[in-house]
Amino acid sequence: MFREITLGQYYPTDSILHKLDPRVKFIGTIAFIIALFLIKGPVGYGFATVVLVILIKLSKVPFRFMVKGMKAIAVILVITMLFNMFLTPGEPIFSFWILTLTKEGLATAVRMAVRLIYLVIGSSIMTLTTTPNQLTDGMETLFSPLKKLHVPVHEISMMMSIALRFIPILMEETDKIMKAQIARGADFESGNFITRIKSMIPLLVPLFVSAFRRANDLAMAMEARCYHGGEGRTQMKPLIYAGRDRTAYFLIVLFFAACIVLGILGI
Amino acid sequence: MLIELKDVSYIYSKDTVYEVRALDHVDLAIEEGQFIGIIGHTGSGKSTLIQHMNGLMKPTEGRVLFEGQDIWAEKYNLKNLRTSVGLVFQYPENQLFETDVITDVMFGPKNKGLPEAEARARAEEALKSVGIPEKSFTTSPFEHSGGQKRRIAIAGVLAMDPKVLILDEPTAGLDPQGRDEILGEIRKLHRERGITIILVTHSMEDVAEYAERLIVVNDGKIPFDGTPKEVFSHYKELEKMGLAAPEITYVMHELRDRGFPVDVTASTVEEAKESILRDLKGGVRRV
Q1: How far apart (Å, rounded) are the C-alpha atoms in residues A209 and A211?
Q2: Whose C-alpha in A39, A100, B37, B166 is 20 to 30 A from the C-alpha of B241?
């Protein structure tokens, strides 16, 4: 029942995007997201769409996996669209009660929706083609200059790796406990809001107990292996840029520059 | 017939790269009052199999019947089914959540819709039948030892008064004494209350000792289904599946190979002892 969330779920296959260095993909995703907010007109959006379609094709990940991630933001999407449609002042199209749909509002709503959807798909491409571990490795190297400013980069990335690593475990655990309680006649689906919240207690208490137990075990295991933080720590698979990564950087710069130009021109 | 699986298949993550066929056209019938052992190595599909028996998983193909009725028919009451087919998961102590033992055990009966007093009576009876002393009833379930917690969790399922009790490796991680005690209590439930027991385990010794019927699961199929003696006679095939016969079976085969005419179908130490003694007393010497 929790298998539907794809945001942050790796899809193992063999594609050029899977082989890229995680740092490239991370910077590329950031560039893509910023670019989405630079472009303004139909030409810009058309350009972004073409780039996105090419990326989806390159990733070899079935498109429905990216659409699945969209379900998570469906509610936010609808709310943003409604607010934009009815609360933007401008030329009215029709009025209903105290709400007025404006032309400008409709345009903004569509733009926001496209931005949000592209944003989710764009970041899904990164998370679907990169394992969580690669991703945190990449971020650690990218942010390592901040160590000079006494930012605990290694510790943060270690915490992120652990958090990411535990998401599937805790989900599985939730699934198991839920099933065990359903087997004892628990009902998680019917009843009003209050009864539903109450019915969560048999799920949440065991989940917390197990999360604390796991955290304890992990801390002990790390200590037993003399873990002492980032100082002097080496990696089993250090990240090294290959030729294709340099090509990818070049394409990202090109894409970003094009988006800036399109944004300034306003088309 | 109590539970019937007809041509049941189950596929995990259908239509993705993660697709796994966990059950492959399984036909199975479970009669009332049996003590059944299910064995299979990790990932063979045995957990998936037992979750089909109380409607926690819906077969991708095929039908599941309980007392002759299709449990996935439109108006079938799955909640009732789950109280009739009690399922104790692996490490059931992880599902405890209440502030005291008795309230935790009452969770099942109360969900069944029983009034407070009756739920309490059921819970007390269930706790006693798994050997939890009365003075522990009002203590926190979390302050007990692993073995005790597991008993409390089993009582939580037992208190719903199920016709069938399915236990998924109830002895995993327990010391030998705790293991014998829990299995002894399960046998008592079977003998005294006539509850049908389905025991999933890795221990060949346990199934040889307790089960009257043994079902082997391998790769989502059921290659062997019979009395433990029949199944263990295929010990060479079992080994190919990553399983084995009880150790004593090997001892008996070795003895036979060295010329002692002992009974190689002996699957418990007790049976083996008798067979060897009979052989020695009979004065049969090496041939």
Answers
A1: 6
A2: B166
Give the domain range for residue A225: 132-233
* Residue B241 maps to a domain: no
Question: Which of B17, B96, B156 lies closest to A13 in CB terms?
Answer: B17
Burial of B62 by CB count in 10 Å (0-12 exposed, 13-18 middle, 19+ buried)? middle
Phi, psi for residue A89 in degrees, rounded to 5: -70, 150
| Sequence letter at residue B218 | N
Structure tokens at B175: 């010391």
**Contact call for A185 and B79, based on CB within 8 A:** yes
pTM: 0.74
Residue of B94, B96, B140 for testing the chain A interface, max A β-carbons within 10 Å: B94
- B221 and B215 Cβ atoms separated by less than 8 Å: no
Is B40:B243 a contact under the CB 8 Å cutoff? yes
> Which residue matches tokens 């890795």?
B202
For residue B79, the chain A residue with the least C-alpha distance is A185
Residues A124 and A136 reside in one and the same domain: no
At A139, list the tokens: 């971020």
Interface predicted TM-score of the whole assembly (ipTM), two decimals: 0.85
Q: What is the pLDDT of residues A131-184, one digit of tens each?
A: 877 888 888 888 888 888 888 888 888 888 888 778 878 888 899 999 999 999
Within this chain, do residues A122 and A248 fall inside the same structural domain, yes or no? yes
- Compute the Cα dihedral for B185, B186, B191, B194 and give only its sign: positive
Residues A118 and A13 in one domain: yes
Residue of chain A with shortest Cα separation from B141:
A206
- Chain A stretch 209-238, residues whose beta carbon is closer than 8 A to a beta carbon of chain B: 209-210
Q: Which residue has the tokens 């295929």?
A: B234
For the stretch B35-82, pLDDT in tens is 999 998 888 889 999 999 999 999 999 999 999 999 999 888 888 899
Alpha helices in A130-227 (DSSP H): 132-143, 153-183, 193-199, 201-224
Q: What's the domain range around B272?
A: 246-287
Answer whether B55's CB lies under 8 Å from B43's CB: no
| Contact of A31 with A78, CB cutoff 8 Å | no
Q: Please identify, among B234, B259, B278, the residue that sits at the C-terminal boundary of a domain.
A: B234
Same domain, A4 and A121: yes
State the Cα–Cα distance between residues B157 and B86, nearest whole angstrom. Answer: 6
DSSP B159: T
Same domain, A173 and A123: no
